[in-house]
Amino acid sequence: MGFLDGLLGRSKPPKANLDVLFSVPQAALTLQAEGFTFTGQGAVCFRDGEGRADDEVIASAQEMIRTDPTASVELNHDEFGFSWLEVSRPSSDVANLVTDLHAVNSTMADQGFDTAMLCSTVVFEYEGHRLALVYLFKRGTFYPFVPDPAGARRRDNPTELRMRALIEKDVPIEPDLGRWLAIWGAPGL
């Protein structure tokens, strides 16, 4: 941050610590011991820009993942205008899914699209419904998102808080509950 930026109250956001994604397999083991099951699905959410440059980066990330025959990757768009690069792996392969998500995030950030990155998800199942461990790209933290199976566009806050308590020693948890955003329409949920 420069002197003028300091005087004007502007600050640069911290660079994302993508390596914390590699702590997700430990969190998955902790959750599995409590009845949560990894589904083999995850995704990276971003704002898709205009032009060929970001399309080429996204195509490159997809091609990289497709080199492994046990992985599949698909580009989807939600009702809010966000793009999701959805990755699927066998349900026993959380480590390689995390590696794929890290590769997509790194590729996009290295090519200058880090301002377009929003979050990544790793999808689990608990008591018959889907939920996600969400990585906030700009914060380098995680939070659980658990849609309430009983109602549309409602959250299961007790299960979210239970998940937080279970994994807070495994991954850095987002301390500001106001940043635990609802990600309705996320792939796999």
Total strand segments? 6
Q: What is the domain tally?
A: 1
Largest sheet: 6 strands, antiparallel
Mean pLDDT figure:
90
* Strand content range: 15-25%
Shape: globular
How widely separated are the two ends? 39 Å
User: What CATH first level would be assigned?
Assistant: Alpha Beta
CATH architecture: 2-Layer Sandwich
**Would you identify the regions where 5 or more consecutive residues have pLDDT less than 50?**
none
What radius of gyration results from the CA coordinates?
Answer: 17 Å
Q: If strands are numbered along the chain, what order do they take across the biggest sheet?
A: 2-3-1-4-5-6
Q: Which class do the helix and strand fractions yield?
A: alpha+beta
3D structure, described in words:
- Helix content is 31%, strand content 24%.
- It is an alpha+beta fold.
- The chain has one domain: Alpha-Beta Plaits, CATH 3.30.70.600.
- It has a six-stranded antiparallel sheet with strand order 2-3-1-4-5-6.
- The relative contact order is 0.20.
Helix and strand arrangement:
Layout: H1 3-8, H2 24-33, E1 37-46, H3 52-66, E2 72-77, E3 83-88, H4 94-110, E4 117-126, E5 129-136, E6 141-145, H5 157-167
Antiparallel strand pairs: 1-3, 1-4, 2-3, 4-5, 5-6
Helix pairs in contact: 3-4
